[in-house]
Design goal:
The complex is a heterodimer of chains A (about 270) and B (about 400). Chain A has about 270 residues and is an alpha/beta fold. Chain A has 12 helices and 8 strands. An 8-stranded parallel beta barrel of chain A has the order 1-2-3-4-5-6-7-8, surrounded by 9 helices. In chain A, helix 2 runs parallel beside helix 12. In chain B, strands 3-4-14-9-10-13 form a 6-stranded mixed sheet, with helices on both faces. In chain B, strand 1 and strand 2 (about 15-20) form a beta hairpin. Classes of the chains: A alpha/beta (about 270), B alpha/beta (about 400).
């Protein structure tokens, strides 16, 4: 069983829901990203999503676009992100999911990526722009490692596709809360709950909800119907606005963001 | 006969397909089923042809450039006059086809990207024709160098949204249009302007642009009583080239696509995707050749012509390249500018800087061909939009 599956088993047995923060690797720089990731682990992150910066992030809103640009300007490469993961792994056991567009991984070569990522202790790969047959092929290649290809579902996904996607999904399913790009929103739309409910018909895998989640209220809402909440742009934005002390700023923000989890333990 | 149709997932060989966020799968499926429903529908095709004839002004002439031919002393050079299409470029052919489809699909909000501004102007035009809301994304660098087209779009009632991210050119405009589409999938039709992007766009745009080649084939058979020896077209995303080439693919006709050689061979100085062997990757929904750095980041590109300034190329071109059915060469900024000037003076036709790349290659090869050879150059657009750029450079 993969480390991601283990983590959700543990959460379920403890009656807890998951908190999955996202940071762009290399923003503001690689060393600080490592510090932030370790801090997030200390603050109770259950899984950490590490963003691989890409020059053309078509699924991302302005916050993560700017973050990717800063990281690329610093010269961050996929190799650097994998090195960062390895340094993280020495100090923490928390599952790491790489969040990437396909081209950097395609360019490195999938098999090469698989062995390098496995050596770095990567547990999951989430590709924003890969679907269907291509996803199935990648999943097959990754099967020779303990890396899960995390599948995305969206409110526009038909039931027929949900069945297909769920049938080959590994680790957990990432439900995109609404049609749109990444970015903080005041409220989470009701489409997210509907989507999760529809997906439950086809799978017992844990489901995490992301896109637009930035407040404790939203996280609590998500925890009522899903297994985990993903917070990305809100954290990236804190890093952007606190260039002189990003680690402590993230610490303050996340400490106030994640609700007490005993509250949902009775479920 | 070789089959040049993509498979049902939009692949020509290993190129094409769909590399998009999950949210876009449903709208792309809707688009594909909408398109395949009209592709062989005589009513739709008749409506399309009616607008091409009466609104766009087709068929466009196939004009023998006799002074140019004489000056070069070699092959007879015919120009396929897409510069005479309404709005001044071939882009309108595709826009007419897609706007009819959007109407059938019940979409009232149209978005588009534009590089040189020609596709944006053509989209704004067909939206005005049918009274539809129109938003055009354009890189701020391109807005600067194609200022007259920005104003034309606004005159036509479109909203032009400047894109400040990345290189502020066509690639970034496409990213922003995709972001808009993913956010507004229910109401919005994305009218993509080149033979690029996720399936079914490369196929659909090629089909709509193939009117260029079908006409040219008929015209040359009438005028010369035979097929041409060579076709030449510039290739950015590749819609004017594939439109001319496609109806000739199963004929014994040599075809040459001309990429933007820019100002040098180094990465970042040109937009010639096939230069130095080329490199395959995934960008903006499709797998094709693209310009990228050692880490798989999309490389900056450069061309004096905004419409050719793009890091990737339509997947059907990638396939035709690998099959060696079409030759791909490049022309530099300097060569394109010289061709711009030469065609203006020799024939009284000011070509778009994009089309000037095709003309530049014709100037290179025509003199060495015998006088009984026949060449067709796709004059994909007119150069009025470029006179400011050319004036600034010649100063």
């Amino acid at each position: 069983m993969s480390k991601i599956a283990d983590k959700f088993m543990q959460l379920r047995s403890e009656g807890r829901k998951g908190f999955i923060p996202f940071v762009t690797a290399g923003d503001p720089d690689l060393d600080t990203s490592l510090e932030i990731a370790l801090k997030l682990a200390d603050l109770g992150a259950d899984i950490i999503e590490l963003g691989v910066p890409f020059s053309d992030p078509m699924a991302d809103g302005p916050t993560i676009q700017r973050s990717s640009e800063r990281s690329i300007r610093n010269g961050t490469t996929l190799n650097d992100v994998l090195d960062l993961a390895r340094s993280f792994r020495v100090k923490s056991d928390i599952p790491l999911v790489l969040f990437s567009y396909f081209n950097p991984i395609h360019h490195l070569g999938l098999k090469e990526f698989r062995s390098m990522a496995a050596r770095s202790g990567i547990d999951g790969l989430l590709l924003t722009d890969v679907i269907e047959n291509e996803a199935a092929k990648i999943s097959e290649v990754l099967e020779e490692s303990s890396i899960d290809l995390i599948s995305l579902i969206a409110p526009t996904t038909t039931d027929e596709r949900l069945r297909d996607i769920c049938s080959r999904a590994k680790g957990f399913i990432y439900a995109v809360s609404r049609a749109g790009v990444t970015g903080a929103r005041e409220s989470t739309s009701s489409t997210a709950k509907q989507l999760v409910d529809r997906a439950r018909k086809f799978t017992d895998l844990p489901i995490g909800v992301g896109f637009g989640i930035s407040t404790p209220t939203q996280i609590e809402e998500v925890w009522q119907y899903a297994d985990a909440a993903v917070v990305g742009s809100a954290i990236v934005s804190v890093i952007e606005m606190n260039a002189s002390n990003p680690v402590s700023a993230v610490e303050t923000f996340v400490a106030g963001l994640v609700p007490e989890r005993q509250a949902t333990a009775a479920e | 006969m070789t089959n040049y149709e993509p498979n049902e997932r939009g692949y020509w060989g290993e190129y094409g397909g769909r590399f998009v966020p999950e949210t876009l799968v449903a709208p792309l499926d809707e688009l594909a089923s909408g398109y395949f429903a009209v592709r062989d529908d005589p009513d739709f095709q008749a409506e399309f042809q009616h607008l091409l004839n009466n609104y766009v002004g087709r068929p466009s002439p196939l004009y023998l450039a006799s002074r140019l031919t004489e000056m070069l002393g070699g092959a007879k050079i015919y120009l396929k006059r897409e510069d005479l299409d309404h709005t001044g470029a071939h882009k309108i052919n595709n826009c007419v086809g897609q706007i009819l489809l959007a109407r059938r699909m019940g979409k009232n909000r149209i978005i588009a990207e534009t590089g040189a501004g020609q596709h944006g102007v053509a989209t704004a035009t067909v939206c005005a024709l049918f009274g539809l809301e129109c938003v055009v994304y354009m890189g701020t660098e391109d807005m600067r160098r194609q200022e007259p087209n920005v104003f034309r779009m606004q005159l036509l009632g479109a909203e032009v949204r400047g894109v400040d991210s990345g290189s502020q050119t066509l690639k970034d405009a496409i990213n922003e249009a995709l972001r808009d589409w993913v956010t507004n999938v229910d109401t919005t039709y994305y009218l993509l302007g080149s033979a690029l992007g996720p399936h079914p766009y490369p196929l659909m745009v090629r089909d709509f642009q193939s009117i260029i080649g079908r006409e040219a084939r008929e015209q040359i058979l009438t005028i010369e009583g035979r097929l041409p020896d060579v076709l030449v077209a510039c290739v950015g995303g590749g819609s004017n080239a594939i439109g001319l080439f496609h109806p000739f693919l199963n004929d014994e006709v040599r075809m040459i696509g001309v990429e933007a050689g820019g100002r040098g061979d180094a990465l970042g100085e040109h937009a010639a995707r096939f230069m130095a062997g080329g490199d395959v990757g995934v960008l903006q929904g499709t797998k094709s050749y693209l310009l990228q750095d050692a880490n798989g980041q999309i490389a900056p590109t450069h061309s004096v012509s905004a419409g050719l300034d793009y890091a990737s190329i339509g997947p059907e071109h990638a396939f035709l390249h690998d099959m060696e059915r079409v030759e791909y060469v490049s022309a530099s900024n300097e060569e394109a500018l010289a061709a711009f000037k030469m065609l203006s003076e020799a024939e009284g036709i000011i070509p778009a800087l994009e089309s000037s790349h095709a003309v530049a290659h014709a100037l290179k090869i025509a003199p060495a061909m015998s006088q009984d050879k026949v060449m067709i150059v796709n004059l994909s657009g007119r150069g009025d939009k470029d006179i400011g750029t050319v004036r600034d450079i010649s100063r």
